[in-house]
Design brief:
A hairpin with a 2-residue loop joins strand 10 and strand 11. It is globular, with a radius of gyration of 20 Å. Helix 2 packs across helix 3 and helix 9 (201-208) packs across helix 10. The protein has helices spanning 9-20, 26-33, 37-50, 61-64, 77-88, 120-125, 160-166, 184-193, 201-208, 212-224, 256-264, 290-299, and strands spanning 54-59, 67-75, 93-99, 104-111, 132-145, 228-233, 243-251, 269-275, 281-287, 306-320, 323-324. It has 327 residues and is of the alpha+beta class. The strands form 2 sheets. It has an 8-stranded antiparallel β-barrel with strand order 2-4-3-10-7-9-8-5. It starts with 8 loop residues before the first helix and ends with a strand.
Length: 327
Amino acid sequence: MAKALALDDLDRGLIHALQVDGRAPFTLVADVLGCSTQTVVRRYRRLYAHAGLRVVALPAPRSAGIHQWFVRLTAATRAAHDIAVALARRPDTSWVRLTSGGTEIVAIIHTQPAGPDAHALLLRDIPRTAGITAVSAHYLLHTYVGGPTAWHGRVGVLDAAQRARLRAESAAEEPEGSPYLLTGSDRLLLDALRDDARISYAELAAATGSTAATVARTLAELRTRGALFLDVDIEPAVLGVTVSALLWMQVKPAHLDAVATELAGHRELAMVAATTGPTNLVAQALCGDAEELHRYLTREVALDPIARIETAPVLRTYKAAATLRIG
């Protein structure tokens, strides 16, 4: 079980290295960490098997031409699990959690900006689902932490020189200006990377009907353009996290950016995003225990511009990034 797995400094260094560059060769990672390649490979396989460690490739929403919505569904307790599983299995979701005593499901849903079925899941499928008693949708406007910007709680191991050696062609965030729009061949490459973004160029070439040189060049270009990013998924419990909660905050609009920027620097928050709706800022807190969460809420988040805050404990994760956790 993931909770029983104890991490040492080498494990944490490996996780941080993969967050810097998820496709960094194990030989380079080993050199940066000061150990043998065989040791790094062995540690990676151990974390992969017992801690849910995955490197996944995800498209930048602007390049994929999609909109993202935080959707909160209230459901009867007996139906909530089945609804969450069904949502997690859909290709147009990337984040599914069960919160608030098992009666609320929170999911990120991707929609097309136009077309007859652009919002079919939001407008037709979800409202017609038996067991759902209430729905609220919050359009995701801007992400401060999450996606390409890693959670500080798992990236505090390597120093600046080590990070510089690992940082290759990947872009830290989406460039400003008009986004690069993914082509059909780009999407085929992304599909091949979705379950394991560390597969070899030869495997990518076979999956896409291309050549290793072509996929290597395309992948490097997509990362440089900020059209895709690599993320690290791992069971929070192995990092000492036993309590997770979503924080739905109502912030005075004039102070929203300043508050979100300040919260983005907090080690306890794995996600901070501005949304539409009566609560215009949402965050995910990851803490060692309930007392730590209490201290954080009462001492760190008690900012004057935050008019109201709703705390919803996360009971179960069904999907994190692109990784299913419903086995």
